[in-house]
Amino acid sequence: xxxxxxxxxxxxxxxxxxxxxxxxxxxxxxxxxxxxxxxxxxxxxxxxxxxxxxxxxxxxxxxxxxxxxxxxxxxxxxxxxxxxxxxxxxxxxxxxxxxxxxxxxxxxxxxxxxxxxxxxxxxxxxxxxxxxxxxxxxxxxxxxxxxxxxxxxxxxxxxxxxxxxxxxxxxxxxxxxxxxxxxxxxxxxxxxxxxxxxxxxxxxxxxxxxxxxxxxxxxxxxxxxxxxxxxxxxxxxxxxxxxxxxxxxxxxxxxxxxxxxxxxxxxxxxxxxxxxxxxxxxxxxxxxxxxxxxxxxxxxxxxxxxxxxxxxxxxxxxxxxx
Length: 322
Fold this sequence. Notes:
By secondary structure, this protein is an alpha/beta fold. The protein has helices at residues 3-8, 26-31, 42-48, 57-89, 110-121, 142-148, 162-173, 238-256, 272-295, and strands at 21-25, 98-104, 130-134, 179-185, 190-199, 204-208, 230-235, 304-308, 314-320.
């Protein structure tokens, strides 16, 4: 993307792309929660949030309960439309799962948001069965990344088996009764052989990952996002994300001391200052370039953008108009 194009897609600027979205500030969005029940306990929220996230009862009630209701309404409406189409064609109803994509940078909190939305959307009567799949499972195994010289590019588009991911989602969206995805362990920092995530035709499938809104590599290819019914981009200032990344790196390093199987044990010998320097090195050489080159340019493709402030709370919601 050129500098001019990047400016055009700046969601803080007044440009034609903004006309596609409703811009809703935090206070107005929070008012949508009036009359909606907060179904999660404080203990459940603590279990859902990731390292470094500051998710609390107020944030869930004011931001994510309304969002979960909106997703549930979209899914229910799509299901009704599918049933009406089948009736019109004189066929049995074959409506397939509603697929939601969640994209954003490393450490921006998208994994926590995906887990939270899985729990919240499953509490609405029309969408009781919700599954979550992360695209980490479609990373090439470390041995294959080493063979291809891509270990330092882990997380970049070329480090994923894109064809396998598209095939998986195509099966889900085609209504297959059971579809399996590989399983990635953050503790081992690698794919776990013979471990799978099984999706059995739920109401909603949430797909979370860095590059899920990427356009197809060639015009004749299917994009991952072509198989989404709704997409969310989690956005924040790169400087804030860098700090969250360092904080998470330090938290994972501390946790590794009590778990000899953790990949982060390789950093156990570092001092805190050295660990911060190492984390910033990874951020500046891998994660920031990936954000700038591959992730951020897809923001305008999302149906909804959550803009976070320095404290991880959502300040603005951008919702694409129908």
